[in-house]
Amino acid sequence: MIIDVITTFPDTVRAFREMGIVGRAFDSGLAELKCWDIRDYADDTYKHIDDVPYGGGPGMIIKPDPLFRAFEAVEEFRQDQGHRIFLTPQGKPFKQEAAERLVEYSHVVLLCGRYKGIDQRVRDELIDEEISLGDFVLSGGEIAAFAVIDAMVRLLPGAVSDDESTKSDTFPVGLLDAPYYTRPAEYRGLKVPGVLLSGHHAEIDKWREQQRLERTKTKRPDLFDRYMRGLEESHG
């Protein structure tokens, strides 16, 4: 999988590339990441990439020219334009199913916003999809890019040492995950639930499923209701 990131802070993205599961996936060749500095495509010697908005108003807007040039440079380098994503609070909220869909693309290009926004003509002509981390505003799209990259890359076969662990994560099963414990069996008077020490795998599975249901109903009733509706629909 090829991931290109168009950003004003390429060093930040490169540092993230070295971390944990993501770093190992890139080092092993499961994925490739390249950063493209928007300022490299500015049309003046001072590397200005922003200007005041037409019609007035607060904030600065990234101009269309450096962004068009950056996307063109990516396409020329890759001989492929890729699936182009703009990371913005105005985008569709990012969820697990989006990560599972995006990882099917062989080439993804992430545009990290900055300042007040970007020229609308870039969005109209170049962007295939807009993604948001949620209903809040960040100073730039780099943190959102980290989240999207991590969620995608960990799904690549071989990225996680135990591929089965990704299948039991919270969102792939539709419920919040069950609680987990490790040694010692008792710590400061706090004991591990006996069923987990029983060696009875059917009972352990039953306990974990019940914990998932209870946790989800308490912490995320919206997910619980959706899960139960799915069960009802699947059973006719």
Helix and strand topology:
Blueprint: E1 2-7, H1 10-16, H2 20-27, E2 32-37, E3 50-51, E4 61-62, H3 64-78, E5 83-93, H4 96-102, E6 107-112, E7 117-118, H5 120-126, E8 129-132, H6 142-153, H7 163-167, E9 186-187, E10 190-191, H8 201-219, H9 221-234
Helix pairs in contact: 3-5, 8-9
Descriptive notes:
The chain is of the alpha/beta class and 236 residues long. Helix 3 packs parallel to helix 5 (120-126) and helix 8 packs across helix 9 (221-234). The mean pLDDT is 93. It is built from 9 helices and 10 strands. It has 2 domains: 2-153, Alpha/beta knot (3-Layer(aba) Sandwich), CATH 3.40.1280.10; 169-234, Orthogonal Bundle (Trp Operon Repressor, Chain A). Helix 4 links the parallel strand 5 (83-93) and strand 6. The protein is elongated. The strands form 3 sheets. It has a 5-stranded parallel β-sheet, sandwiched between helices.
Q: Report the sheet with the most strands, covering strand number, pairing sense and barrel closure.
A: 5 strands, parallel
- H/E element string? EHHEEEHEHEEHEHHEEHH
Number of domains: 2
Structural class: alpha/beta
What number is the mean pLDDT? 93
According to DSSP, the number of beta strands is 10
